[in-house]
Amino acid sequence: MANYSAPVEGIAGGYTGDSLAIQAALAALLSCAIYGALELVVIIFFAFHVYRGLYFWSLLITASLGILPQAVGLLLKYFDVGPIWIPVTLSTFGWATMVTGQSVVLYSRLHLIVRNPSVLAFVLYMIIIDAFILQVPQIVFSYGAIYGGPHFSYIYNIWARVQLTGFFVQEIIISTIFIVQTFRLLCTYPQRSKRRTRIMEQLLLINTVIILMDISLLVLEYQDIFILQTSLKTFFYAVKLKLEFAVLSRLVSFVNYDHEQDSSVFS
């Protein structure tokens, strides 16, 4: 059975084992993430008629500047291609863009089912504050692990758990808001058309899947299964972004609802 927790040197080194199964799994997961991100970038430019707005830019940046460099960086790192600072730079800044960008994608469509300005402001401030509090130390510790020795590597491993837990809580909050508001819509207007009901059910399903993915990543992190956790994390974020794009883009149909009815539902 392949051991996905060793041998690997954490953030400061690549995979040093000789298991073909692990190498194949890493290559497959990260290649799928790269393909998914490239495919999504192409789809975005064909799907949008006007290239502006928070939804458009958050999708494009998350896919092109988040998932792609994160996946490429991990491939270079685990297969020991080039000096270590190159893959660490790609994966570190790619991860920061990927995880925060994915939350911004959800936020950019949250106003379609949430009419409470306080809730929207809370989510926005939470994303911004978490990005600074959780991402900046991670970047410092990543480079410290390369140039600062074992002490920084130890700190990095601890902070990686703190960071992943923090973003897990953030995504749980955002997904829970989507789920609760979706339930309220379905319960308040059960007579809606099958198409609209199907969209809401898909939104509910996707946010449930997001929570399950995040739970699995958290379990892998606390079990010190570093290789699988980092590779699967990149793959999961590529999948989540494509799922969100598929359903969130269709939520625009709800904008045409009578505003008075919407206010009675969401206030």
From TrEMBL:
Keywords: Membrane, Transmembrane, Transmembrane helix. Residues 25-256 form the DUF7703 domain. InterPro entries: DUF7703. The keyword tRNA processing does not apply. It comes from the Eukaryota. Pfam families: DUF7703. The chain crosses the membrane at residues 20-47, 54-72, 84-107, 119-147, 167-187, 199-220. This is DUF7703 domain-containing protein.
